[in-house]
Amino acid sequence: MQSFRQFPAVATILIKLGLVGCTSTAEDHLEDLLDGSVEHEQVKHEFLLARERAVGPLLDAFDDHRFAPVRGQLVEILFSLSMRLDDTRLSYALSEHLTSDPDPDVRALIAESAVLYNRVDMAAAFLQALEDEAPLVRQHALAGLAAMESQQDSAQQHILAVRSRELLQDSSAGVRLEAQTRTAAIVAKWQAQATQLQLQAMLSEAEDLHRRAIEYARGSKQGYYGLGWFLCETDRHEQGFELLRDHGLLLNVPRIQETPVIDGRLDDGAWATAVRVDRFRPTPSPVRHIHGRRLPSRDTRTPNPLVRRGVGESQ
User: Fold this and answer.
1) What is the pLDDT of residues 158-174, one digit of tens each?
2) What whole-number distance in Å separates Cα of residue 168 and Cα of residue 54?
3) 87, 188, 241, 304: which could form a disulfide with 283 (CB 3.0–4.6 Å)?
4) What is the pTM of this model?
């Protein structure tokens, strides 16, 4: 009987066929994921090794209701794969599911994952997701747009600014908090630009930016604080003090005529004219003196009272 040594080419072909027969397919890995017979990380690793060959089966499975129990795991695998492949099918499918998937939990997970993976190419889908009926999707979409703002074009940035302000009235506390963070960041950006203009002696332009910030975020203590301090820095002290005082950003501390007894008790008559402060707001500011008055500047963070009560004042 002749051995394979006499026919090396035949032996090589048989070995290759044997290996092919033992190799698991993408479909096999999907079944492993579904029945839990193989650890998620191992299955994920196999898909990442398969690269382009894994894209089609993964997207098909994502649309197959049979794989509904593992769609969350599929989202993670798809995003991981998208970071290794420049495949437009992945970006298109993830964007499509972010805006139209019937499962709000899946939409929210895609939005959250897109933020973590910094998927700037999904900005248009994020903008559309701001209208999603699910609060968590809106919240993640707003957070994602904020994270990628520097990479957006001017039109997208404008839409983000407008929608952030509108979402301050959202029914969801989480969305409102995210919108407050975003509007505060926009106000801070304009105030920083105003400071640079002020340093260049472009005072009119700087003041316009401060007033634009107030107009954009009406009721923003941050906006009024910036304008009030700007007025003080440009020799309009009384106007600045008045603005800060009107919005609870300036604390008037009356002088006392007698020395109080410091014993932890407040029945001493010296405390009768004391100003009461019962709420604080952190602002970037150590105390500085201007014309004999103490007014916070904007260099470090110190408590700044929003609500104060004293003689002749009401809350």
Assistant:
1) 988 999 999 999 999 99
2) 42
3) 304
4) 0.68
